[in-house]
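If your schedule permits, I should be very grateful for your opinion on a structural question. What I wish to show you is a protein chain and, alongside it, a tokenised description of its three-dimensional fold. Would you kindly read the sequence against the tokens and tell me how you understand this chain to fold? Here, with my thanks, is the record as I have it:

===
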Amino acid sequence: MKVPRQIRVRAWMAFPLLVAVAPCHAAPCPVVPGLVAPARLTMATNPTLPPLQYMSVDGNLSGMRIVLGQEIARRLCLEPAFLSTSFAQLTLGLLEKRWDVIDTGMFYTRQRAALMDMVPYEIQAISLSVADDAPVVVRTVDDLAGRSLGVEMGGIEERHAREIDRALRQAGKPGLDIKTFQNVGIAFAALRAHQVFAVFSIDAVAQRGVAQGGVRRDLHGLYPTPVALALRDAALADRVAGVLNAMQADGTLERIMAPYGVSPIPGRIEASGPGCLSDRY
């Protein structure tokens, strides 16, 4: 029986698609043991840091770090699952084994790495933002003497603010009036309302603030520090480090970060945790 030409054309068009998807199933996915849920990478995030991680107007988690987490899960052959929580709950939830990964841009410190396995993968620096009608231009942190500064509570921005405050007072100058906020979004709202003179935030968030209007960025690139994923399992941390190295090698990591003004950490990516604290960071 002669096959109609239309059917023959459709069959020919479908063939390349079958060839394209076949390699995905050529090798079985490696088993990842010890997960909170089998075949799923459960990631917790604090979605208050647009454009890096935030809740979009349609109620979906969005931002660079969400895209990064999805790509890591894909390369591990796992289903990505995100949980939204407060920053204060992130470490406790990880130690209580409620999630596998903290994907929220946590700054790396040896104190944190002594508690949980961390994989530094990006470099973030701090910006100083002021209202766009601020009467003075801040050229150095010394220009903040006697002024109010808004920061997110408990973050590295607050730590550096308190270091500046101490240094100013030791030099015989007026210190800072540090105002802490539950998240950086509230700090920027206070800045636009002229309730604080300036705000410390990471560079990408400050850039977004400028784009939204009402503020300007007088300083940026301050205190560059590694930012890490945190994990509750050393073996999983090593796997994730391997995935990130592969993403760095094929250019995926830079492609994900570049639109946000974020840079991958230079050199090889490696885990650092309670079992083996790295001297590199």
In short: The chain has a mean pLDDT of 89.
